[in-house]
Amino acid sequence: MKYYEYDTDDMIAALATPWGESAIAVIRTTGQGCIEALSAAFDGRKKLDESAPYLMNYGTLKDPGTGRKMDEIIAGIYKKPRSYTGQDMVEIFCHGSMAGIMEILKMLRSIGFRDAKPGEFTLRAFLNGKMDLTRAEAVNEIIKSKSVKAMDIALQRLSGTVFNRINHIKNLVAEILAGTELMLDYAEDEADPEATLDKEKIEEAISLLKELASTYKIGKIIQDGVSVVLAGKTNAGKSSLFNLFNKRERSIVSEIHGTTRDYIESFLLIGEIPVKLYDTAGLRDAENPVDNLVEQQGIKKTIEIMEKSDIILYLVDGKAGLDNDDISRINSFDSNKLIKIWNKADIALEKSPIGFIDICALTGEGFKELELEIKKRIGAEKIEVNDAVIIDSERQKNLIDEAIKALSNSLVSVNENMPLDLIAVDIKEALDSLGEITGEITSSDILELMFSKFCVGK
Predict the structure, then answer these.
(1) In which order are the strands placed within the sheet that holds 338-343?
(2) For residue 305, what pLDDT band results from cuts at 50, 70 and 90?
(3) pLDDT tens digit string along 237-272?
(4) Which of 297, 338, 391, 398 lies 20 to 30 angstroms, CA to CA, from 257?
(5) How far apart (Å, rounded) are the C-alpha atoms in residues 93 and 448?
(6) What is the mean pLDDT of residues 397-413?
């Protein structure tokens, strides 16, 4: 899909609410002539093309070709440039009948509208100067937010926090570049022998960019969440703990070994961080090999999930105790993502080893301590939204890294008394990278990739 292969002023339409039965559905339209085109299909007290802007107009939607009544609607009128896209817009509020929605969209195609591509409304908003790229990305992040905290941070970005921070750094870098070019403009015999590049400004810009880049990891965690896998031998209590996390019976609990032969997953929030939790097939020890092919596949999947997970909760049956197989597995895991759990602590025959958290998955004893440890590992306790500027866009992070690298190269060149024209190249490269973040410098390929990730109708 190439956004620039067609006229961005043509009329487009899309369902902005989810497909499915609902009380109300919203169909968005925009483009040059959209108000006039819909006016011919609208029967109300006043024609839509005669309506004042920013009014809700009640009336009947009819098929201009046949005159058939399609639905009773409310049409919201928005005139350029004071609209979401910066173009004329009409939003149709109709009944949420699947059949009715499809008929309206079919009628819109017949009078000159085409189906909007993913993110095309927001793309037009960007192209018409209604928002920069950081705000455009924030629109999609709000829609995809899995927690209140993620939405709060995305709303801050929509209000311009990232843009303002990048703009401040960009102005700083532009000052450095202007100073460099000024020195280059003078001949050697005219140059001030005391004139030097402001190293402190370069260092300040690098420091500010590194501070912003450091927020990416926590930003991604807040937006995308983490994966947590329950692992351990058969009958270690994984399914009971899985049910405890979910506060209902999702997984079968049985004393029979190997009950869980495939993984089960669920979504939950821990400290406002989205968590995908996996209950997995029990691992067998060397003395009890698996004969069942289904269980073998389940164990294989367990190992794959553990390798990809962010946190491993390894359960040991406190009643059975710790053995060499458990120790070997525990030692093979990355300690940074491993949390060791001593389950059935209430009936354990011995005290838990150092570094284990005592719990009873059936009664919930010790569960709060486990949740606190998980929050600590994923950094949930350190997250304070307030006025913090946090990024979670990989595109933004990569461009920030490029700017840091270019400025760092320029600093090395300054210290080594390299020619000014070479230093200027690095500083210009950093400035271009920052311009790409906000969209001042961009390409159609980048826009296509970014907006194709949006939902249709936004």
Answers:
(1) 264-270, 273-279, 226-232, 311-317, 338-343, 356-358
(2) confident
(3) 888 899 999 886 644 444 444 444 457 889 988 878
(4) 338
(5) 29
(6) 95
Distance CA 447, CA 452 (A): 8
Q: Which residues contact 93 (CB under 8 A, 6 or more apart)?
A: 24, 25, 26, 56, 73, 74, 75, 76
The per-residue pLDDT for 42 is: 96
Packed helices 199-213 and 161-185: angle between N→C axes, nearest 10 degrees: 160
What pLDDT is recorded for position 387?
64
Q: Which residue has the tokens 């669920």?
A: 266
Backbone angles phi, psi at 391, to 5 degrees: -110, 150
If one compares 231 and 379, the residue with the highest pLDDT of the two is 231
Question: And the tokens for 211?
Answer: 């501070």
Beta strand 338-343 pairing with 311-317: parallel
> What CA–CA distance (Å, rounded) separates 269 from 249?
17
Contacts of 264 (CB under 8 A, 6+ apart): 242, 250, 251, 278, 279
Q: Is the pLDDT of residue 297 over 80?
A: no
Residue 15, pLDDT above cutoff 70: yes
Sheet harboring 89-96: ordered strands across? 42-44, 56-62, 69-78, 89-96, 22-30, 12-15, 114-115
- pLDDT confidence bin for 70, thresholds 50/70/90: very high
Q: Does the reported pTM lie above 0.70?
A: yes
- 143/244 Cα distance (integer angstroms): 29
Instruction: For residue 289, say if its preceding peptide bond is cis, omega within 30 degrees of 0.
Output: no
More confident residue, 247 or 205: 205
Q: List the one residue out of 330, 329, 226, 242 whose CA is nearest residue 280.
A: 242
- The amino acid sitting at 442 is T
Token output for 329? 């597995």
Distance CA(422)–CA(420), nearest Å, equals 5
Determine the straight-line distance between the first and last CA of the chain, rounded to whole angstroms.
16
Cα 405 from Cα 168, distance rounded (Å)? 18
In angstroms and rounded to an integer, the radius of gyration of the C-alpha atoms of the chain is: 29
- Bridge partners of residue 27, in order along the sequence: 15, 92
Is the pLDDT assigned to residue 60 strictly greater than 60? yes
